[in-house]
Amino acid sequence: MLNLKCCNCIYEISKNMIKRITSVTLIFLCFNIFSCSGPTSSEQKYRHPNEDLIVENIKKINQSMPMQVDKYTTAISMSYAAGRVLFIFQIDPNGFDEMNITKEEWKIGQNIYITNQFCTNPQLKLWRDLNLKVNYLYNDAYGNFIHSIKLDENDCT
Q1: What is the pTM of this model?
Q2: Which helix (H) or strand (E) holds 136?
Q3: Mean pLDDT calculated for residue range 42-54
């Protein structure tokens, strides 16, 4: 017969497993919504002239995912559809407290940092040169939305 302590342990393990499954499911749904929601009428006929190159580069990048970016951030994956690149990141929200900043302060700093990276990093030159829209999506480990940044070459002028 199981004692109360053991039952609580099983409950906690089950609860954590459900949270992880929910997290994976939400990330999967995000991919599906982004890539399978269907293009708008103006995008239906659109095929980027360099789409094969774009997809090939994204596949190479995804081979190294997930990738720890810093103590609080993990790059999960990239995808592409209808002229848009999506970077998905997972953020440890405890990092805000540890860095002694609010989520809003982090968002402001992240907007500046990501825009500077997008506009100046030679490794991202391909995305700029190909006139792609790039979305950076930040979620926590449970799939809760934290922030989104949308950029294109017009943000670099």
Answers
A1: 0.66
A2: strand 133-139
A3: 68
